[in-house]
Amino acid sequence: MEHGEKQITVVDEQGNEQLCEVLFTFESDKFNKSYVLYYPLGADENDEEEIEIHASAFQPGDEGQEGELKPIETEEEWDMIEEMLNTFLDEEEEGE
């Protein structure tokens, strides 16, 4: 994944690839990490179902190499991500 990409391919535990839409990315000075929030491509086309949003830490690759998505490790990180997501969603609603 490169910074600024709108779609990423995520590989699950079973090795299945899934194309996902990037919702937004942000960096945390507190944890010294970058984060990406994303959801499966096409999930926003079904209005009846709530979209399941996923989050991962993002570790940029070396020059010319793709970065790597890492699992979120602490409850403190999840709390910060949830707060960022809520702020993002509130701003999206205000813009409509």
Explain the overall architecture.
- Belongs to the UPF0473 family.
- It comes from Rossellomorea oryzaecorticis.
- This is UPF0473 protein AAEO50_19275.
- The mean pLDDT is 85.
- The chain is 22% helix and 35% strand.
- It is α+β, with helices and mostly antiparallel strands and 96 residues long.
- A hairpin with an 8-residue loop joins strand 4 (54-59) and strand 5.
- The chain is built from one helix and five strands.
Compact summary:
This protein has 96 residues and is an alpha+beta fold. 22% of the residues lie in helices and 35% in strands.
Total E-strand runs: 5
- The chain-level mean pLDDT equals 85
Anisotropy-based shape: globular
Terminal Cα separation, in Å?
29 Å
β-strand amount: 35-45%
Share of helix, binned: 10-25%
What structural class should be given to the helix and strand makeup?
alpha+beta
**Number of alpha- plus pi-helical segments:** 1
Stretches where pLDDT is under 50 for at least 5 consecutive residues are none
Please tell me how large the radius of gyration is: 14 Å
| Spatial strand sequence of the major β-sheet | 1-2-3-4-5
Order of helices and strands: EEEEEH
Q: Which sheet architecture does the biggest sheet show?
A: 5 strands, antiparallel
Topology record:
Blueprint: E1 7-11, E2 17-28, E3 33-40, E4 54-59, E5 68-70, H1 75-95
Antiparallel strand pairs: 1-2, 2-3, 3-4, 4-5
Features:
96 residues; single chain; 5-stranded antiparallel sheet
